């Protein structure tokens, strides 16, 4: 999917609750499924919410998917929608405005450019193919989005997918700890994500060093304890030998005294 990332904030009265992060892209698998997937604390609350041009009786916005993280909104008790509020309506308005810009930039402007170059020849629309493949881990404590190698058959993936299924061993064997990648306008990984990965690798390295140091310290302690026990055993043996020698000398003196008395 190709994404255009934007950020929005709630109304001024709710700004202390935080902002919303949202992205738009094309559904390359089924264009009939479109709208905004609205999340709260990594939990999907309302799927396929159509906004702006997607509500018009035409083909505008068809096939466009949005992903919106709106932790500042308040879900209803059944966790299937959000409570209606000025912040919620302002967010829908911002989503509609961003979708309109996205649609113009990715579809309408290209159609106009193609029309001006060849007004009498209508070129067939190119099939949109994903330049970055994303899949979400379904493990409740993870829910991270992962990129997959180019050429991956998305249709062959299981409906429930986990990080352990990723072809990259660093991700598959990280026990869901590998940092999540982030979208930017040109579909590249932001510098922050790279830093997080480096920090994560450095943390693993330092943890391994600490574990090895701890093992060495434990081995040294066992060695010192063994040496101490050996020294104590040797001292006890020497003491026993000295006591036996003294007892032998005492016995000899008594025998000598008894002979003299006779």
Structure, described:
The radius of gyration is 36 Å and the shape is rod-shaped. The protein has 262 residues and is α+β, with helices and mostly antiparallel strands. It has a 5-stranded mixed sheet, with helices on one face. A two-stranded antiparallel sheet has the order 6-7. The N terminus is likely disordered. It starts with a strand and ends with a helix. The chain folds into 2 domains: 129 residues, Ribosomal Protein S5, domain 2, CATH 3.30.230; 69 residues.
Q: Which strand order spans the largest sheet, edge to edge or round the barrel?
A: 1-2-5-3-4
**Amino-to-carboxy terminus distance:** 117 Å
Beta-strand content estimate: 15-25%
Count the E strands.
Answer: 7
So what's the CATH class of the largest domain?
Alpha Beta
Helix content: 40-55%
Q: What is the N-to-C order of secondary-structure elements (H for helix, E for strand)?
A: EEEEEHEEHH
Mean pLDDT: 77
Instruction: Point out poorly predicted stretches.
Output: 1-18, 117-127, 185-190
Task: Return the domain count.
Answer: 2
- Judging from the principal axes of the Cα atoms, what is the shape? rod-shaped
Multimerization status: single chain
Biggest sheet layout: 5 strands, mixed
CATH topology annotation of the largest domain: Ribosomal Protein S5, domain 2
Q: Under the CATH scheme, which architecture of the largest domain would be assigned?
A: 2-Layer Sandwich
Please tally the helical runs, counting DSSP H or I stretches of 4 or more residues.
3
Please state the CA-atom Rg, rounded to the nearest Å. Answer: 36 Å
Q: Given the helix and strand composition, which structural class is it? A: alpha+beta
């Amino acid at each position: 999917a190709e994404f255009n990332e934007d950020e929005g904030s709630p109304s001024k009265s709710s700004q202390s609750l935080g902002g919303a992060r949202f992205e738009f892209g094309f559904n390359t698998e089924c264009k009939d499924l479109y709208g905004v997937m609205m999340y709260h604390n990594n939990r999907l609350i309302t799927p396929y919410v159509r906004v702006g041009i997607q509500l018009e009786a035409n083909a505008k916005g068809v096939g466009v998917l949005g992903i919106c993280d709106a932790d500042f909104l308040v879900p209803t008790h059944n966790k299937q929608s959000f409570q209606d509020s000025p912040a919620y309506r302002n967010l829908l308005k911002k989503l509609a405005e961003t979708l309109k810009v996205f649609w113009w930039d990715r579809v309408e402007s290209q159609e106009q450019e193609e029309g001006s170059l060849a007004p009498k020849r209508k070129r067939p629309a190119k099939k949109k193919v994903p330049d970055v493949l994303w899949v979400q881990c379904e493990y409740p404590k993870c829910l991270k989005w992962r990129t997959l190698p180019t050429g991956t058959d998305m249709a062959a993936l299981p409906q429930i997918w986990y990080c352990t299924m990723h072809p990259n061993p660093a991700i598959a064997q990280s026990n869901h700890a590998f940092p999540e990648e982030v979208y930017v306008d040109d579909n590249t990984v932001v510098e922050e994500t790279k830093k997080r990965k480096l920090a994560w690798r450095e943390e693993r390295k330092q943890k391994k060093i600490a574990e090895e140091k701890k093992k060495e310290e434990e081995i040294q302690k066992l060695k010192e304890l063994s040496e101490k026990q050996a020294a104590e055993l040797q001292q006890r043996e020497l003491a026993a030998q000295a006591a036996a020698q003294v007892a032998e000398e005492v016995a000899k003196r008594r025998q000598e005294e008894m002979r003299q008395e006779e």
